[in-house]
Amino acid sequence: MESFTGIHYGGVSLHYVDSNSELRVFTLACQAYDYETQQSKNIRAFVERILDEFGLSLSDDVYIVTDNENKMTYAFKNNVQRIGCTGHYLNKILEHGFKKRTSIVKNYNHYTNVQDKTKTKDSKKLVNPIPKTHIDPLDEIFDKPVVKGKLVKPASSKTELDLYLWDETKPEKETNILNYWKLNQTQYPILAQLAKQILCIPATNMATERLFSYTGNTITNRN
Question: Which residues form the HAT C-terminal dimerisation domain (predicted)?
């Protein structure tokens, strides 16, 4: 909501990978939210109306990134793949962390007092208030290779995914991951197509959030 006018705004941006494996980002709208309430059904209708103007629509093959408020969760619960904004998750973690600070300090002081009570006057410990648990070594947790130090070459019956997992070629850290899949789409056609669908999904919805800030600073009279 714009604090000076009381008007709510909504924004929609489009992210996709084109036929040349280039990431494309377009802002489709940043406009006043003209529904009476912010019920989930109205939010859904607001977004669908914007998409319809461009001949687009939501479906099970489309991913949408929103914040994690309940109204957004329910608005995009069906006929679309909703992903929570990572920035919103981090913000909530920090928010709850600072709120819980007093409780953490209290628990720490309580633990320290318990430790002190387990010692005699000559500082010898009588008991350990926190029992030690046995942790198996990692070698016991993970599967061991059939032949130590050797990798079994993939058979011709291996799937495309199997061949990719067995491929010892590793891209460099500086490699453009979209370009990597473009160069390997002949060898891994299915995985390359999946990569285009997944890698265009933004981690956050900051594209529209930044747009709100820019436009607010531009058109709002703050005098």
Answer: 160-222
3-state secondary structure of 23: strand
Low-confidence ranges of the chain (pLDDT < 50): 120, 125-126, 132, 134-136, 138, 140-151
Report which of 64, 67, 71, 70 is spatially closest to residue 86, judged by C-alpha positions. 67
Indicate the domain borders of the chain. Answer: 9-88+203-219, 89-133, 139-198
Provide CB contacts within 8 A for 16, sequence distance 6+. 23, 24, 200
pLDDT tens-digit profile of 8-30? 888 899 999 998 999 999 989 88
Cα angle 59, 27, 86; round to 5: 70
pLDDT of residue 207: 67
For residue 6, what are its two tokens?
């009381």
Contact yes or no for 88/97 (Cβ under 8 A): no
Phi-psi region of 15 (alpha: psi -120 to 50; beta: other; left: phi over 0): beta
C-beta of residue 9 within 8 angstroms of C-beta of residue 205: no
Packing angle of the helix pair 86-99, 101-117 (nearest 10 deg): 50
Q: What's the pLDDT at 148? A: 47
Distance between CA atoms of 132 and 112, rounded to whole angstroms? Answer: 17
